[in-house]
User: What shape does this take?
Amino acid sequence: MRLRICLSLMLLLVARHPFAQSPQQNLDSHIIWKQEIKGVTASVSDRATTDSSGDLWFISDPLFDADPRLLHVDASGRIVSVDKLPDAIHPHFPEVSSFALATSTQGNLGILANHSHAMGRAIYNDGADFVVLDRTKWGTPVKVAGSGPEYRALLALSDNHFLAMGDQDPMTLLRLDTAGTVEWRRRFPSKWDLDSGASLKYGAACVLSSGYGFPWMNLMELDDAGHVRSQIKFQGWNGVISADSSDSCVALYSTGSLKQKRVRFHLASFDSSLKQNWTTAMPVDSPWGGSFYLASLKDGWVVVTDSDAKSGTVLIAKYDLSGAVVWSLPDVAIPSPNLVVGAGDSFYLVYQETEDRHSSIVVRAR
Assistant: This one.
């Protein structure tokens, strides 16, 4: 997933699993297949998802595509479909739309569309729509939010519901059923920013947010009724959250120094009471303002961050369920990724070639 990095302080955490360099490898040794999709650009503002078959779904970038399209790529790399989005969830200029995707436990694809417009240097969020795609049949779009927060993320919950996450003004969470009905709405401090969520058992979720302009992370567990079961605060700038089969919440977050203009990412696991199980630091720093992603796999996680090891490179590393490194590539020479998403024991990586900004490279690797 991408996120922006603000000011920071250095926080050093003692890792239970110190980094051990894996045998010399390159990304090619992990690639299952790789292909180029002409005329399609995936945006870092958008989210991708995978379904129970391991197929990839993502939406083309509205900034490059006047009529954004939903792409379905199967697990073998075959493009199954390229569908234009319904006009109802993609108003035309001067409004701009961004999208988030999630696949429900019953296999329906949920799409959250956030709408905004610019006036001078200010950007105003105009609301959000939600629609479900049942195989090849579009549902009826439903307006789920008016002006206020930017609804930038959608999470599929374990009880066939969805959690829409709004960023600031204030931070707002909406529980939706598959018809788009808002079952509950919870608001949190407006200084909480850049929220990320992960699904737990029985419709619960863990939600991670950063403090706007402050070096603090807020991590909480919500039950299916939206009640906060547990909550902690720890030092860090921003991050993303995932979960494992034991309902532990796993966070990737950054610490760093403003003067040095670089950060160091950490991967940490928290149990059901949000007590830390383990933590480990990435082997290399990342430049200030870089992108970062955490993809959940059946047997661990894949971390992708911009790398300070060499200019124009990214770190790609896999960690097992105990936080131990499986393999690590600190200087993979590809442009900053647009999308990284897990699919069983493999993951998809989508990025753009510098020569053709209107095409996307899709890689499936493990």
Notes: The chain has a mean pLDDT of 87. The two ends are 17 Å apart (CA to CA).
